[in-house]
Every structure is written in C-alpha cells, then in structure tokens.
Design brief:
With 279 residues, chain B is α/β, with parallel strands linked by helices. Chain B is built from eight helices and 15 strands. Chain B is globular and about 50 Å long. The chains are: A alpha+beta (383), B alpha/beta (279), C alpha+beta (158).
C-alpha cells in the first residue's frame, strides 16, 4: 500500500468531518473511548467521544488513566483491547446442525459483518493485524470468518506521539511509525496549533481525505512529525533484545527462569486475552435440551488453561511452568517457523495486564544472561 | 474468492454419514464402517474429525483400506464421553465427518527399502491402511515387517487379520504382549525387543511407528542404536486436535501443528523435542 | 558338524569377544536341546549353568500360589537364559521352560567364572557383554512396568 498522494494536514476540529464522511459512506466507526477507567475500543459516533485530554500510565501489572495538560485526542499508548476482537471475535457461532428424523442438516454461519472503520490504530497494532492476517489467511486454508470480517475493514492509523511504560515496538521493528497496512495514517500534532498530519495509504484513503478540508503538509509539519516519532521512539518503556531469539529460547527449554516465573504466574490467561496476536480458540458444542439442534461455537482460548493440552486422561502441560514456556516460546520462537515472523509486536499489553506484573522482556533478558535468579532479586527490590 | 470460501467451508463443516456396520474389536474398542455416500479418498495415516451430535468431536485415524474408498473405516477406543458415544453408534446411525486431514505415512519416501511397521496397542489402527497399501503394492518394497506389541493376547487388535498376514510369506509378522498366561506360545516382552530380532536392514529401511509416546521415545533411541537414520523414521503424534486445520492452536508440538504438519512426522524433526517434558 | 566354537561365534551374545576368547568360552560349553515344556532351570537351584539360545523360545516364569505359573518374559534365538551364575549367592530366581523345541549352548558357569578370574581381559569383555544384556532387560522391564497399553488414566472428557 504505497501512499497515493502527497501528505496533507488539517485542523484538529476537522477530524470529526473525516469520521462523519466515513459514516456517510456506510462505515461503522470503532475507536478509542473511556470506559471503566480504561481506554477501550468501542463503537463511536464521532470525534467528541474520543478520550480528549487523557493519557495512560503503564507499568508491569499497572494501568491508570491520567489527565493531560492538553486536549490531545490520541495522547495515550494502548489500552486493554486489541482490534482482534473485531476481526476474530471472542466468541462466534460457526455452524448449526439440526436433526429431523434420521437426517441431519448443517448450516454454516454466513452473516455478512458490517463494514467497520478502525479509528486510531497504532503502528504496533497494524503489525499485529498483519500477523493475524498471516495466521488466518496466509496458509493453504483460509479462515472464512476472519476473511469476511477482514475484507470489510478500513483502517485509520494514528502514529504514536507517546510511548507507554511497557512499550517496546522499537525493539520489535513495528513502530512507532506506521509503515503499511493502513488506508490513512494520521499523526496528531498538539503544539504549534492542534492539527493532524495525514498520509493516504490507499485509493479510498486518498478519496476520503479529499472530502474534508485539508492543506498540503508543510516542511514544518513534516519536521514536527519526525520529531514526535523520534521522541516517542526514544522513550520506550521496555526493550527486548531480539538477536537470535528463536534459537535462544529453543536452547533453553529447561532454563530455571521458567520455574521462577511459574512461582508468580497465576495462569489467569490475561496476557493471551490482551495480546493482539494470540489466536488460539476452543470449539464448543452447544445442544438444545431436546437434542434436536446443536451449535458449534468458537471461543478465545488460552494455552494457560488446563484443558488446552488435554489428551485422553490428562493435560500434557500440567504445570504452570510448561504453560508459560509454551506461550513465550510460541510467541517469540515457534511463530517464526510457523508464520515467518515474530508473534510479538511490542505493545506491552501482556505486561500491563498481568495481575502479578510478569514482564516477558525481563524473562528473555534473564534467559539470555543466564542469570535468572539475579534478575528476579533485582525485580523484587524495584517493587 | 468464492472458490476459496467454498473450500474453507468444506473443511470446517461436518458431513453427516451413516454407519453401515459396527464390530466390537476389544473390550473397549469398536470398529465402525461408515457409508461415505461416494468415494472417500485418503492417504494412509490421515485422520478425520468424528462428531457425535451435540456431544463433541474427536480426531480419529482412518483405519480402512485406501483401495476401497467406498468404505470409510474407523476404529474407536471408548475412553471418554465423545468416543463412548461414537463407539455406541449402531447400524444406520448418523455421525458427522470432517476430513481427511493431516500428513500420512510417506510410503514413497524410500523405494525398494525394507519397511518396518511398528505398532503398540491401538496404534495399529492408523498403520493398518499403510499395511494394506504395502501388501497391495508389495513389489515396490524390500522386506516388510509388522512388529506389534499389545497388553495381552486378548487385547491384540485385528487379531484375525494378524493371523492372515502371518500366514503370508511376503510379510514378517512379530507380535509380543506385556502379560500372558503359560498357554501363550508367542513373545512376551516389550515391543522394542522385536526390533532387535527382526531381519530388516537398518541402513536401508524405513520405519513407521505409532503407539504411546513413551514407547515411541524408546523406539527412537533403539533405532538410533541399531543405525536407522532418523530421516527414515516416521512417527504418528497425538495431541489435542480440535479444529484440525491449524487455527485453534491446541495441537502444537514445538513449532508443528500436529493436525496439519502431522500427525505423521519424520523423527528427524522431533528428535530433540521428544525428551522434553510437558511440551 | 559344527563345533561349539562355531556355535559360540555365531551367537549374538558373544559378538564382542575375539577368536581366542571365544575358544576359551567354548571350552565351558556344550550342546543341549529341550523338548516343549521341558525345564531349563528351576527357581531355587544352584545357578551353575546358563544357556545361549540358538533356536526356539523359552519362557521365564514364577509360580504364585494363587495364580499358578505366571510368565515374566520370553527369550529367544540370540538371547541368554540365566544371569544368576554371575554373582553370589548363585541361585536360580525364576523357572525357565522351553516353548516348542529349543536348541541351546549350555555353559558351565563355574568353569567360566574361573576362566574370567584367571584372565581379567576375558572377564572384562564378557562382563561388558552381560552388563549390556542386563541393562536392556532392566530397561525393558521398566518400560513394561508403565503398562503403556493400558486404559488411559484419569477422568477422560472426550
């Protein structure tokens, strides 16, 4: 998706016009809004519902909203939601089987999902969507449900001006600049006049931009964008040394760090639910009481549950140690072999939403240094 | 696009088929012959997802003859809710079938080489289609051996077929059991011992293995000991296959999705992982 | 007519011995055959003898009052019946019976122990061979203890 027109700029007040133009074209808007003390992705009607003047503070096991001293609309990092909830719903019916007499008929779920415009997609989230595209569409078989939803999505990215306390997109090579996979990439510039810098990434993105009041971006605008991205990139809360990472983990399947993490991990599966790339699902059969009709549902599942690795008689991964190891080695190692890229995009959600603050960047560093116990001690002194 | 969607649907929707016959094999094991309503082509070693209406779905290897695609044959060991429901299906009952899925036994991998089929317990079921093909195309292979270990003489799967194969001169059949009374005149001992007694040429052979994982681990070590290259050893892995098309993530083993990259995997690929606990 | 030395040379258990050593070992051996059901060794006897099976199958068993003859393992061509001759108290622990006709080389254990004591190199080579046999029997026994073909444990859900 190469840019199809020169970069534009528009006043912050004009953003709502862009959103209304999208709605006029039939798109339902999904974007950030404040709910339950967090910035979540939800249906929005326009710019007025965006979290103006709010930011998030993140640390291992910690997330708080805080008021900014400006009116930035996208002045936060990322919240607990990922866009995957729209492309790969937490639960969905796949098919229904109905018995009549001795015969059974099956009907597949065919509902056309509504066209969705994602507003405020971060660079790491673009990367996460690209990762899930490879998972669900990149192989010999495509997932029909994911494809239907994915084909009906328009993406308005917003490049990050802030780096969260658990962000490490720079380490993962996924941000803070949006490289591809968007229809429009915005950058919010607050100082020197609240405005947006806009770049189209597709024909329809360019067409949309032409329907609102914009001007050509100036050299100053471009310089401001560059400075903002450089500032965000320089303030990553975390780093992850990815050199030889797949091999490093494969060579350390019995590292004592796994035992140390298992001592803290609650196997609650928050990390996998918050992760924008985790794709595991459970299949459930839901019959009616008369046993005449039964539905097959697909629900998000997690490799942290006991059932996940069930094999007649018991779980293959009975210990929490083995489940955490499975999650991390899958994400950072096996993923490369399976899908040709890392499964982690550096968004930091798993660190933030872990109730005990387990930090994968710390675990990898500990395994790399071979000094698991020492790292653990330092961590405990910090908290 | 439409074609792609159609193909995807074919693989995720069960087709309902009728049970044509049901035969008890062992105390807890039944074989179902299913009418696929048309030729059901498959590769020896592949599996289907069998769905008991409203109860659940489980991966079960195909155990029939690939040369007779009009009969779909599954041997089911009734150890859980779904397998008990499947094993109880009588003549005329319907069950859902999705498949065939997965990689089969690579019978063309080593033309002319000796072929050793090593099975333990119910592990003979996914190997039976391979045996049918080996015997049907007997001239393409060197010596063919079936080495089979079971718990007791009463728990030998496909006993009448074992007798029939044993009476042939073009296949060596060696059976051993873990326990038996003094009336048993055959081998009593661990299945890996049969490897040392068999007459195949380790340097020019292909070994197909299916059985409990711990058995396969010991077999792998013994085969290495007698000089069979790991690239020529194939094992059928078992994991928690749910979607069977590599999306649900449950059956991962190292970087493999057992449903898609397996169930038959060259030992070479897994050698390093087999000894890792809880992988 | 093959000599005992020829038979020793052919037998898998003596693979690692050189020609001179095989000749020494053969000096303690003789040909012995058994009919179906005939006893090679009986629990409680002095373990002065052991057998290298050349042909046929032998079952090792133990008699339990409540279960009668209980088979532990079967041994066949290329295998050794009798390990108790190696170590004190030199007592046979299990019964060994022929299944069908069995041809063996029977060895005088006492004679062989004497030769091993006199020739440590022979002793070492022979002990190494027997240690290999014992190790693989031990491993097989452990694997069978697992009862891997038994019904899967625990509450199955599928």
């Amino acid at each position: 998706m190469a840019p199809t027109a020169g970069a534009r700029a528009f006043n912050a007040g004009e953003l709502d016009a862009l959103l209304q133009a999208l709605r006029a074209e039939g798109w339902t808007l999904a974007g950030p809004r404040i709910r339950d003390g967090a910035i979540v992705y939800d249906e929005i009607g326009g710019a007025a519902e965006l979290p103006a003047g709010w930011t998030d503070e993140q640390a291992p096991g910690r997330y708080r909203l805080r008021e900014r001293d400006d009116r930035a609309l996208f002045g936060y990092a990322v919240g607990p939601h990922a866009w995957k909830k729209y492309l790969f719903p937490p639960s969905e019916r796949l098919w229904t089987a109905v018995r009549s007499g001795r015969d059974v008929g099956v009907s597949e779920e065919q509902a056309e999902p509504p066209p969705l415009a994602f507003i405020g997609v971060r660079a790491c989230e673009l990367a996460a969507i690209a990762v899930q595209d490879r998972v669900f569409l990149g192989g010999e078989r495509a997932d029909a449900s994911y494809r239907r939803r994915r084909e009906n999505v328009l993406i308005v990215a917003v490049q990050c001006g802030e780096a969260g306390g658990n962000c490490f997109c720079v380490s993962m090579g996924t941000g803070p600049a949006a490289a591809s996979g968007y229809d429009i990439a915005l950058t919010e510039l607050v100082s020197g006049g609240h405005r947006f810098h806009a770049r189209a990434g597709s024909e329809r993105g360019a067409r949309l931009l032409s329907r609102i009041e914009t001007r050509a971006a100036t050299g100053d605008d471009e310089e401001a964008v560059r400075a903002l991205l450089a500032r965000a990139g320089g303030r990553m809360g975390r780093t992850l040394d990815t050199r030889g990472l797949p091999q490093l983990l494969q060579a350390n399947l019995e590292h004592r760090r796994w035992d140390e993490v298992a001592g803290r991990c609650l196997a609650c599966s928050n990390c996998t639910l918050a992760c924008p790339t985790c794709f595991c699902s459970a299949q459930e059969d839901v019959p009616d009481l008369a046993h005449a009709r039964s539905e097959r549902w697909r629900r998000w599942d997690s490799c942290f549950t006991g059932d996940f690795s069930y094999l007649h008689g018991g779980s293959v991964r009975a210990s929490i140690r083995s489940r955490y190891r499975q999650w991390l080695t899958h994400k950072l190692s096996a993923w490369h072999e399976q899908f040709g890229s890392c499964g982690c995009v550096g968004c930091g959600r798993c660190i933030t939403w872990c109730p005990v603050g387990i930090d994968l960047t710390e675990d990898v560093a500990a395994i790399r240094s071979g000094a698991g116990a020492a790292q653990q001690e330092r961590r405990e002194q910090d908290t | 696009m439409a074609a792609a969607l159609h193909a995807a649907a074919e693989h995720t929707l069960p087709q309902f088929m009728r049970v044509r016959a049901r035969r008890q094999e062992l105390a807890d094991t039944w074989t179902l012959e299913i009418d696929p309503g048309g030729p059901f082509e498959f590769l020896p070693g592949q599996f289907n997802m069998l769905y008991a209406f409203g109860i659940g779905e489980v991966p079960i290897s195909i155990s029939g003859d690939p040369a007779r695609p009009e009969r779909l044959v599954h041997t089911v060991r009734a150890v859980g809710r779904t397998t008990q429901a499947l094993a109880a299906l009588g003549r005329g009952a319907r069950l859902g079938v999705r498949g065939p899925y997965g990689a089969g036994w690579p019978l063309d991998a080593a033309p002319g080489a000796d072929v050793v089929v090593l099975a333990g317990g119910i592990g003979l079921a996914p190997l039976r289609p391979a045996l049918y093909r080996l015997l049907a195309e007997r001239a393409r292979f060197g010596r063919v051996s079936l080495l089979y270990g079971s718990r007791s003489p009463q728990q030998l799967l496909y006993a009448s077929e074992l007798r029939r194969w044993r009476s042939r001169f073009d296949i060596e059949v060696e059976v051993t059991v873990d326990t038996a009374g003094p009336e048993w005149r055959g081998n009593l001992g661990v299945v890996t011992k049969l490897l040392r007694r068999s007459s195949f040429d380790p340097a020019n052979s292909m070994v197909l293995v299916c059985g409990p994982e711990v058995m396969m681990r010991h077999v792998a070590t013994d085969l290495a000991g007698i000089g069979v290259p790991p690239a020529r050893v194939f094992i059928s892995m078992e994991r928690n296959m749910k979607c069977a098309v590599g999306f649900c993530g449950h059956c991962q083993y190292g970087s493999a999705f057992v449903c898609r990259d397996g169930p038959v995997v060259p030992l070479e690929r897994l050698e390093r992982l087999l000894g890792v606990r809880e992988l | 007519m093959k000599t005992i030395e020829d038979l020793v040379t052919e037998h898998a258990a003596f693979r690692d011995l050189d020609a001179a050593q095989r000749a020494l070992v053969a000096g303690c051996g003789r040909n012995r055959s058994f009919r179906d059901g005939e006893v090679l060794m009986r629990e409680g006897e002095d373990a002065n003898e052991f057998f290298a099976i050349r042909k046929g199958r032998v079952r090792l068993s133990v008699h339990l009052p409540e279960r009668g003859e209980t088979v532990i393992e079967t041994l066949q061509e290329g295998e050794i019946v009798g390990l108790s001759w190696l170590f004190p108290p030199y007592k046979v622990r299990f019964d060994a019976r022929a299944i069908g006709t069995v041809h063996t080389i029977s060895f005088d254990g006492k004679c062989l122990r004497g030769k091993c004591d006199a020739d440590p190199r022979l002793g070492y080579t022979l002990m190494k061979s027997f240690a290999g046999i014992m190790t693989s029997r031990l491993q097989s026994t452990r694997l069978r203890m697992l009862d891997v073909f038994g019904a899967p444990g625990g509450a199955a859900a599928d």
